[in-house]
């Protein structure tokens, strides 16, 4: 072989090697870019999908659990709920939940062992001062939000460290009439809450606006045909809870709430009005008393009929006892 040919062949072999190396590197780059694009797409889908995260778990297993959920929650933008403002900053409430467990204060919660299911929810809602300690097996341990009546605020303030201390990151939403919630120094309940916010600056305390209170009255009249004031009734904490939950939660699981016909069924389960008040008035006796009160009563039975109606158009499910929605 001539020297010139040898050099020519040598140069050709070097060129083939260079081209091959370049093609391999470009192929790896394409694969890497594709993987990054797929991962970015997956993040986008998970963060903005209407499907709750737990529906993806059968495919993903548990590899993307708590840390991933924290990433999701911290980077998701929630719309403000303008009918609820904080004390003292007057900022709107910003909270959104995939699955909300709304835990009733009813004695129906006793002996059901629903605590584990409740604690698995994205958010757990309780009412007024209903405790968890000593009842964890039936009502769960966690609390995300408490809907509180203006009449129950003094009960919270009997144990301010427990409810508003640094170890408690619960959101408190307090509803009440203007006479108690006015902010001009004459609202007794609002003054109590403002003092609590000063004593516990990290506490997250919100109150319903006058506009939101009026809205809830209008909803009652629209659904029942009765003016709340003229009918001599007061809306219940459950009413305010369900209205806010429908605005804030993708799916609502209600535990321990009886329907409007429960107290008429033969052999119904007799339980105390509150699960944490043993020996208190029977729940159905309390319901019937309020329903027929000429003035100052809650229309619990009427409200439950409205809730059943809402459940047909919203993602609401009732457990312990389970409701049969026709």
Sequence-ordered SSE layout with sheet pairings:
Elements: H1 3-48, H2 57-60, H3 66-75, E1 81-86, E2 92-93, E3 97-103, H4 115-119, E4 123-127, H5 136-139, E5 145-149, H6 153-157, H7 160-164, E6 171-175, H8 178-181, H9 188-199, E7 204-208, H10 210-224, E8 233-234, H11 237-248, E9 249-255, H12 283-292, E10 297-298, H13 300-310, E11 316-319
Parallel strand pairs: 3-4, 3-9, 4-5, 5-6, 6-7, 8-10, 9-11
Antiparallel strand pairs: 1-2, 1-7
List its traits.
326 residues; alpha/beta; sialyltransferase cstii, chain A; two-stranded parallel ribbon; globular; lipid metabolism; transferase; alpha-N-acetylneuraminyl-2,3-beta-galactosyl-1,3-N-acetyl-galactosaminide 6-alpha-sialyltransferase activity
Give an account of the 3D structure.
- This protein is an alpha/beta fold.
- The protein has 2 domains: 3-52; 77-319, Glycosyl transferase family 29 (sialyltransferase cstii, chain A, Alpha-Beta Complex), CATH 3.90.1480.20.
- It has 13 helices and 11 strands.
- A 9-stranded mixed β-sheet has the order 2-1-7-6-5-4-3-9-11, with helices on both faces. The protein has a two-stranded parallel ribbon with strand order 8-10.
- Helix 5 (136-139) links the parallel strand 4 (123-127) and strand 5.
- It is globular.
- Residues 1-19 and 43-76 have low confidence and may be disordered.
């Amino acid at each position: 072989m001539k020297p010139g040919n040898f050099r020519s062949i040598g140069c050709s072999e070097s060129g083939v090697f260079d081209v091959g190396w370049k093609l391999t590197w470009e192929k790896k780059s394409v694969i890497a870019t594709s993987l990054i694009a797929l991962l970015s797409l997956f993040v986008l889908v998970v963060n903005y999908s209407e499907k709750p995260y737990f529906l993806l778990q059968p495919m993903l297993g548990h590899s993307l659990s708590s840390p991933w959920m924290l990433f999701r929650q911290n980077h998701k933008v929630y719309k403000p709920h303008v009918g609820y403002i904080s004390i003292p900053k007057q900022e709107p409430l910003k909270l959104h939940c995939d699955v909300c467990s709304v835990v009733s204060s009813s004695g129906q919660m006793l002996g059901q062992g629903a605590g584990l299911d409740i604690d698995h929810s994205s958010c757990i809602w309780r009412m007024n001062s209903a405790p968890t300690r000593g009842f964890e097996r039936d009502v769960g341990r966690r609390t995300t939000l408490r809907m509180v009546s203006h009449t129950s605020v003094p009960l919270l303030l009997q144990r301010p460290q427990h409810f508003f201390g640094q170890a408690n990151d619960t959101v408190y939403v307090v509803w009440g009439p203007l006479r108690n919630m006015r902010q001009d120094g004459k609202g007794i309940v609002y003054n109590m809450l403002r003092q609590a916010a000063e004593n516990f600056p990290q506490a997250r305390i919100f109150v319903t606006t006058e506009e939101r209170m009026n809205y809830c009255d209008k909803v009652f009249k629209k659904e029942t045909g009765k003016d709340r004031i003229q009918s001599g009734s007061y809306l219940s904490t459950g009413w305010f809870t369900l209205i806010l939950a429908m605005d804030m939660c993708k799916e609502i699981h209600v535990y321990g709430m009886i329907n409007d016909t429960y107290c008429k069924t033969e052999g119904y389960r007799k339980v105390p009005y509150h699960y944490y008040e043993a020996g208190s008035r029977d729940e159905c006796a309390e319901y019937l008393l309020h329903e027929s009160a000429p003035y100052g009563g809650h229309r619990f039975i009427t409200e439950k009929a409205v809730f059943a109606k809402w459940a047909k158009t919203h993602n609401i499910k009732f457990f312990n006892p389970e409701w049969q929605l026709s």
